[in-house]
Amino acid sequence: MSHRHGLVIGKFYPPHAGHHHLIDTAAAACDRLTVICAAASVESVPLADRVAWLRETHPQPHVEIVPVVDDIEIDYESDAIWAAHVNVFHAGLVSLAGLGVDVPPVDAVFSSEAYGAELARRFSAAHVPVDPPRNRFPVSGTAVRADPMASWDWLAPPVRGYLAKRVVVVGAESSGTTTLARALAAHYASRGGVLAATRWVPEYGRTYCEEKLAIARLQDPSRWIGDLPWATEEFTLIAERHLALEDAAARSGSPLLICDTDAFATSVWHERYLGSPSPSVERVHARTRHDLWILTDTTGVPFEQDGWRDGESIREWMSGRFREELSRRDLPHLVVTGAHEDRLAAATEAVDTLLHSGWIFADPIGPR
C-alpha cells in the first residue's frame, strides 16, 4: 500500500540502525515522507548534527528531515501534554510549507514505539508499526548512549565519526611519534572485536613536505627541506587536510582512532617556521574533537637525521614548546619517556582509562 504523505518522529539521540530501518521502510511506502527530529535543549548531541547525519544517511529526494526543539515534558496519560507535543510537530510541518514545499495532509505515521498508535490517531492518520519488538535491529537510543562500543555495529559512519575517541601522538622530530602511533593502533586492533578496526592517521604534513620538495627540486636538484619558503596558507592547508583524513578514518574505523599529529601540533610548527601563532590554524584546531594527547619525550632517543629534519637543537626547542602549550591550553595529555616498550605501556594505560571512562550523554526528558 502506498501512502501520499508519511510521518516519522523521533529524537534520534543518536541515530542508529533501527532508526534507519524505520525511515527506509516508511520511505518505500510513501510518495512523500517527513522525518521530524525532535530534540530537547537539555540533550548533549546538537540537533544540527543529528539532522545532518539523517540527511546524509537518507538522501532520497522525497524524504524531508525537519528539526524541531521539543522541551515539553512527557506524560502519555495527559491530553494537554499530548496536544502540546503534536503542536510542535505540526509547526515543523508548517515550516516546510514556509520553504515552498508541498505538504499534503499526513495519512500515515510510521513508528516502532508503543505510543505510535496514539500519535497516528492525533494526526487522523493510519498507524504503520515497524518491527516494534526490534527483532531485526536489537538496538535503541538508550542502549547506544549507555555503551556506544557495544552498539558500534549499529551506528552509521557520521555517528561513528562523531563518537570515536581520538588520541593524538605529538612530539618533536625524531622522538618516536610515528613509531608509537603505529604501535598503539596495532595493539588495540589486536584485541579484536569492535576494536579490530582501530586505525591510525599518518602525518599529512610529511606528505606535503615531500611533495613540496620534489617540486622545488625540479628547478634545483640541490635544494633540501631547509631551503624552502613557507606561508601561513600552507600550514592551514596541512591542518585542514589532516583533519579531513582523521574524519574519514573515524567514520570507517573503531571507537578508537590514533592520530600522528594534529592541528594543535601544526600550530606549533607554524610558530617554529614563521615566528608566531596562526589564527587560521587555530580555527582548524578549534573544530577538532580530540580526547587525549600523548607527547613523546626526546630524552634517551638518539637524533636521526633522515634528510628532512631541522636538527637536534631545534628538536629540543620544539619538545619544550609542545610541553608548554599542552599545559597552557590545559589539554589532557601524557608525556611518555624511556624505551619504546615503556612508552607503549604508559600510553596503553592512559588510552584504556579513556575508553573505560565511556561517553557522557545528558539525560533526555523522560516520561513521568
What this model shows, in words?
The chain is an alpha/beta fold. Helices cover 46% and strands 15% of the residues. It has 13 helices and 10 strands. A 5-stranded parallel beta sheet has the order 3-2-1-4-5, sandwiched between helices. It has a 5-stranded parallel beta sheet with strand order 7-8-6-9-10, sandwiched between helices. Strand 4 (108-111), helix 4 and strand 5 form a beta-alpha-beta unit. Helix 7 (177-189) crosses helix 13 and helix 9 packs parallel to helix 11. The chain starts with a strand and ends in an 11-residue tail after the last helix. The mean pLDDT is 93.
Give the overall average pLDDT: 93
- Give the CA-CA distance, first to last residue: 36 Å
Main sheet: strand order: 3-2-1-4-5
- Stretches where pLDDT is under 50 for at least 5 consecutive residues are none
Rg from Cα: 25 Å
Q: How would you spell out the order of helices and strands?
A: EHEHEHEHEHHEHEHHEHHEHEH
Inertia-based shape: elongated
Biggest sheet features: 5 strands, parallel
Number of strands: 10
Please state roughly what percent of the residues sit in beta strands, choosing from under 5%, 5-15%, 15-25%, 25-35%, 35-45% or over 45%.
15-25%
SSE blueprint and pairings:
Layout: E1 3-10, H1 17-29, E2 30-39, H2 47-57, E3 63-69, H3 79-98, E4 108-111, H4 116-122, E5 126-129, H5 141-146, H6 157-163, E6 165-171, H7 177-189, E7 199-201, H8 204-219, H9 232-252, E8 256-260, H10 263-274, H11 279-286, E9 292-296, H12 312-328, E10 333-336, H13 340-357
Parallel strand pairs: 1-2, 1-4, 2-3, 4-5, 6-8, 6-9, 7-8, 9-10
Helix pairs in contact: 6-9, 7-13, 9-10, 9-11, 10-11, 10-12
